[in-house]
Amino acid sequence: MECGKKQTEPPSRYSEGTLVAKLEKQGIGRPSTYATVSETLLKRKYVYEEKKFFYPFSLGEKVNFFLQSSFGELFREKFTAELESDLDRIEKKEIDSNSILNRLWLDLQTQIQNSKFILFQKEWATVLQKKKETGWGICPVCRNGILQKKKSSRKKEFYQCNRFPDCEFVSYELPESLE
């Protein structure tokens, strides 16, 4: 019996096409809104696009983490799909829009009252710690290495490619494309 060391693979990245396909499959959005989803993600600097795939900026990771941990039910695929279905039913005059708005308002108030902002801050610190261990993005010079945050002998933080010395990228600032 042979034992080998294997690492788990992260989920594959979304391209604009696979993102739209996922939204369609989940019943989220409308054909008229699909194009603006990726536009908005890019414009707000939640993600950047490289070789037709989306990669998150740290702002995008933080916003996603905050919304999921603080208002999780409102940002679940199932909730969004149900809301889309309700909009269709309103359009067909099968249900009254006020009943949906009242339900949505009550859900939002409950989520706000139950928001765990302090817990979010602690959990985000854990995420940042894990980020230190796994890397801060792809090296902008060699495009093969992963940036790692380190400290100099004077305790100043800097970013360095994990392929050092083969790749000599080093910077005191996180490259703008990864912020």
TrEMBL record:
A molecular-function term among this protein's GO annotations: DNA binding
Key words of the record: DNA-binding, Isomerase
Domain of life: Bacteria
Topo IA-type catalytic domain mapped to chain residues: 1-112
Region forming the signal peptide: none
InterPro entries for this protein: Topo_IA (IPR000380), Topo_IA_cen (IPR013497), Topo_IA_cen_sub1 (IPR013824), Topo_IA_core_domain (IPR023405), Topo_IA_Znf (IPR013498)
Gene Ontology biological-process entries: DNA topological change
PROSITE patterns: TOPO_IA_2
Keyword Isomerase carried by entry: yes
The UniProt record lists the keyword Isomerase: yes
Gene Ontology cellular component terms for the protein in this record: chromosome
Protein name: Topoisomerase DNA-binding C4 zinc finger domain protein
Organism: Leptospira interrogans str. 2006001854
Lineage, uppermost ranks: Bacteria, Pseudomonadati, Spirochaetota, Spirochaetia, Leptospirales
